[in-house]
Design a protein that fits this description.
two-stranded antiparallel sheet; Lysozyme
Length: 205
Amino acid sequence: MAGRLIADAFATLLGVPSPAQADLVFACQVRRETADWNAVLSPGVRFNNPLNLTTGNGRIVWPGQTGTYSGGNAAEWHGDFAAFGSIEAGAWACASNYSADTYLEVQRAFRGGDPIALATSIQDSPWDSGHYGGTFVEDVRAEIGTEEEMTDDDLKAALKRIYAGPDSPEEWVKADVRVMVQQDPETRAAIANIAVKAVGERLAG
């Protein structure tokens, strides 16, 4: 829920439609910040602060903020977390933070609509500052099941596997190749053509 609220608020602030799967990116970040939305372990859940916004020791008053609270752990403790009256207000404040000039790359990635680019921009932003351990993008990939596009090297490896496979080109196409190139229509078509040519050569011989 919080991920969707942040994505929708961010889209409103930027004046663009909310991209598909952007909510999943923010949901992953919310889980990172709130111990998987655990109300016992994370005061952010109890105080409607899904991304653990702080007030900068009182320098910032977030829209919808109702007060502050203390929390954290031995590695990172804050006495100035912002409290909000509702999760909607907290999500709006989180989106407002991402609307600052500090996060221009996050805004650009959000407008572009690529969830992995959005996750990368967050991981590389001042928000992360290394405390996600450089693994945030991996979390998002696992969440949305995104696979990288096939490179030239991947294609060469696929072709090698084809010709090292079973004797029947039909079986190569139905089994190995179909699984390996299902995310790349152009590669799928190219390999299908190779298989057809191989069948023709065998029949002619």
